[in-house]
Amino acid sequence: MEKNPAVPREPGHEVGDAHGLLLAYLDYYRAVVLAKVDGLSEEELRTSRLPSGWAPLEMIWHLAHVERRWLRWGFLGEAVEEPWADWLHGPGGEKQRWAVPDGVSTAEVLETFHRYAADSRAITADVALEARAEGGGRFAGEGEAPTLGWILFHLLQEYARHAGHLDVVRELADGTRGE
């Protein structure tokens, strides 16, 4: 089994403030998940190896929409079209699993991921961690909205968890191991 040399290094030890650390680790994990799928064939990107049914490309599509849900729709309170566009829905509207819509290419998935991540960077760059999400959007009717710090920490744990999922899937696909 090979180790994947494309996996980036963690942020440097010199990053000390919480805001900078959260943003640096989010960028690190964004790069990690992309490295985990780099080099997979189109077939492997779209093939599930797990009972839950998701494929690696669907994970990247999901993470792109996670960015948009938590920061544009959630933190900014903006109306976004189809906030759950990464989910395949059942006949009763229930979420079943992640899915890339028919006709969406790998290049489009990656472009969407990069665009939504760039949007998130712009949204969070100069905002204090203590700032609360705007009313409306994702947090409408839920009482006091979360802080930016809470949202960023939630995103960080989601990325870390999904990077681990992609480690397993990549090893099953071609033997490449994560670190």
TrEMBL record:
<dbReference type="InterPro" id="IPR007061">
    <property type="entry name" value="MST-like"/>
</dbReference>
<dbReference type="InterPro" id="IPR034660">
    <property type="entry name" value="DinB/YfiT-like"/>
</dbReference>
<protein>
    <submittedName>
        <fullName>Uncharacterized protein</fullName>
    </submittedName>
</protein>
<dbReference type="Pfam" id="PF04978">
    <property type="entry name" value="MST"/>
</dbReference>
